[in-house]
């Protein structure tokens, strides 16, 4: 509902029925805005860029104006304000409880890593070396040797794994930590998506057998799918990474891949790696089995990061701002009194309180916006910008009719709900919104997957901003070749993953790129 | 119970009745230790240093052997293993819930801070400059300007506070973050107590009035007292820091001070600072009040760190290892089957399971130690080393008599408890242990506070490893003078705090050090 419409409502006593509302900031009208100066300062709060017109600018605007992010004077670093950090806390609570059920324990390993440990696994350090930040002095004193800041903690943890693991009874060893890591990227930094410091969890585990390691890789990947699909309402494709794209130094990498339709780019959602015995060899992590034989342990590592929040913003946000899935929204329902002239405002507040209590008793996260220096329409826009899933408006007629008006953020549908049913209806609507956001996002995503057999169709689909599912020979050289041939202004195409769910691959099918016999279907695309 | 005693028990079918047990590792006896090699590797697991004989070595040994800490190859950094990290999680859960009730929100600000921001408040940077770690390169590239790692986040946060706060409606602004900070200390590093990286929460808040800021300082300090006294069972003295000892750049600092009797040193437990308007002046954090007047905000910052765990270890630990207060213990009750020859081990396991389920249903944190490669006595020592508050032993006679034996870690008292009462009795005993640990620690601490009026008595008490409560003139020069006069091998004495609870100060009382009129009682001591 636009603020203009609402000013009208305030003056005429009629409720606007326009479905979409307006992004425009409220006109300043002194008579209805007690603290005019404050409003004036904030009239530029609404979105000014459209998602389909300039996606990059839209994204920067929405994360800042919704109150998720503040930019910072160290390039590539961002401030996570409570509005985004609370989403991280919801995901953390979920994931932390799940891994604890699996018997994984939290711990904390140092931020710093010695050069000696960091460079022990050659492939691994090759992957990370250019991005490693080095501390070389403290105060005015040069350190004797530079100390690296962890880009990830394999090399921090595994030297002590070698110490802790002796016999088969010390296995499995399953640790996790919630921490910050630093990768001094030189690509264009983007809040949540690519930042020089980010928050994550990293699990590091060691097993006696490959089977146990394989099993955990899958279980954790399924948790990552749940974070995306069940919490953030973002559809992902589960699959395995190609040799080129797998984790540096690992055996194989599984992934959940999301897709941003506006840019036509895939984005790695979270990864669960089986490291095999490569790190255990380098770090000499042996165990003695029950027959007295000495073997290398099998290891996994897995992580998801604050990136997940950025993907969610990109998928669901619209021209009015954020759209938060109810399961992760800090505020699920905002209650806004709609005062009319000559109506007792305290009576309105009582009604808001009553509804708020009903919703809170039902376990919903509720906020009343009773600020007296903004008109209702301005508040509607403000909470739409912040993405709150459900708005409840309460005006004098609602009170008279013992009802409230509910307005959904996802599709702006409105309905009047009798007072005695508010809690149940709000809970149901939140479930519907959660389901609808996922359904809509999946429909759009599914339309973005194009199945092709030939190079021509591949290029056409790619240029049409699609993910491309193509039969592939699975040769490293061919992936490098495809990268080289598609390198342009918008970046080369690469494999996103080989989906676990494979379409039929009839005998005789050939690779779209090499013409050699195809081994499997791979999902290709440009990517973040 | 010593393992020798237990070996005897295994062979003779009698239960040892010695009250103290032995710290000695078990003798290796092939016939009763199936996996002899593993035991051999771990026979040095027990404590070898006595707390009263060499406190420093005892502390290093206990934090490592209990599985709390692993040393690390970057000096001054330590690995927090699950056994200690889980204690941090308990405290975090408590404190986080409490501050959320107060309306304080979590957020995350960057690890890095620009030199410009860091050096804005002169007193502040003077206090921290020598300890600041600087990143000067990434990969092989020199950064254009060095970037500091946060030693604390005032200078990270306050530039944006100035941006976010405009009007009185933006206040109070109350944020908190859980994070790591780095202070490249050159003093002797000690796990938990003094490390170059540590974990903490830091709260940063801004108010319109000094009264609101003062009030919060007190409320938060009370939460810190609860952490120490109600969770860690460590008595603390609440008070205000002297001008010399207050937070660099702040207005005043309140503190909870603990005391380590073995070393005769006070230790700052946690601090809640009122920053006054000093930072807001430097960072230009103004707000417009409801009359349109422009004023500086009043600010607080407050923090507690992983140091709390170290203090707890120092206070309660004994010659057998850690002693964990039940409220923070990861495992509150360990159940150990005591098998006899010719007794069905599965029957024992069933009995352990049954007891375990009863305790878990009562909400207790329980672990069964059913390892078949260690004798019971070895397990007793192992869990004593790890500080588990309550041990339950279940042998064939216990099963026959429908009872279990409970053994307290704090005083080694044993009792036989009927099966139908195990849950209630265990819960009661845990409460008793929690209360008893605090009571004992407080008795010892109280004996360490010596009230004096003269310099001679002050020096005598100090050399007797006491905290000294003395009437003081509250002059900065006098504190500096006392420091200079007491500087010796064991470090100078300084004010720990001026306790909130002040004894009577009769008119005419003079300062113990200067002879000038005394203004208040101050608590002095050597300190960590």
From TrEMBL, chains A, B:
InterPro entries: aa-tRNA-synt_IIb, aa-tRNA-synth_II, aa-tRNA-synth_II/BPL/LPL, Anticodon-bd, Anticodon-bd_dom_sf, Pro-tRNA-ligase_IIa, Pro-tRNA-ligase_IIa_arc-type, Pro-tRNA_ligase_II_C. It is an enzyme of class 6 (ligase). It catalyses: tRNA(Pro) + L-proline + ATP = L-prolyl-tRNA(Pro) + AMP + diphosphate. Residues 28-41 have a biased composition (Basic and acidic residues). Keywords: Aminoacyl-tRNA synthetase, ATP-binding, Ligase, Nucleotide-binding, Protein biosynthesis. GO terms for biological process: prolyl-tRNA aminoacylation. GO terms for molecular function: ATP binding; proline-tRNA ligase activity. Residues 87-325 form the Aminoacyl-transfer RNA synthetases class-II family profile domain. GO terms for cellular component: aminoacyl-tRNA synthetase multienzyme complex; cytoplasm. Residues 1-20 have a biased composition (Polar residues). Pfam families: HGTP_anticodon, ProRS-C_1, tRNA-synt_2b. Residues 1-41 are annotated as: Disordered. Its EC number is 6.1.1.15. NCBIfam families: proS_fam_I. This is proline--tRNA ligase. It comes from Ceratopteris richardii (Triangle waterfern).
